[in-house]
Design goal:
Layout: E1 2-3, E2 19-22, E3 25-31, H1 45-62, E4 70-77, H2 83-94, E5 100-105, E6 115-122
Parallel strand pairs: 4-5
Antiparallel strand pairs: 1-2, 2-3, 3-6, 4-6
Helix pairs in contact: 1-2
Length: 125
């Protein structure tokens, strides 16, 4: 098992790894829609979905994989009424690729974010 961290990845804010590689599979911690450089959280669910997915893609790229290698996604949203907008942005991000997925409505997420996304992917390295 190997913890993967590069200078380009978002830094973890707690006692956890952003990405663990084990037996050719990458396990990503939940990604919030926080810009890694500016720490800004966008206001709309569409912008937050795009940024959380972008953070997932950044970590995968740094770890030697890609969004096309994602096997499973777990999406946490603060309100079930956001489902349609999240699904629309998610579909645009993945295009024809369809990883298995769960969307879980929760209550409040950290920093008042509307979405958090976890991923599991195959590693190319």
């Amino acid at each position: 098992m190997e913890s993967i961290q590069t200078p380009n990845m978002p830094k973890s804010n707690g006692h956890y790894s952003q990405c663990i590689k084990h037996n050719g599979v990458l396990y990503l911690s939940g990604q919030l829609p926080i810009d890694p450089l500016t720490k800004v959280i966008p206001k709309t669910i569409e912008e937050q979905t795009d940024l959380a997915l972008k953070n997932v893609e950044l970590i995968l790229t740094e770890a030697g994989s890609s969004k096309k290698q994602i096997i499973q996604m777990r999406v946490y949203i603060s309100n079930i009424k956001l489902w349609d907008k999240v699904n629309e942005r998610y579909s645009m991000f993945f295009e024809e690729h369809k990883p298995v997925r769960s969307i879980v409505p929760t209550r409040d997420l950290h920093f008042a974010c509307l979405i958090e996304i976890e991923a599991t992917a195959v590693c190319n390295k």
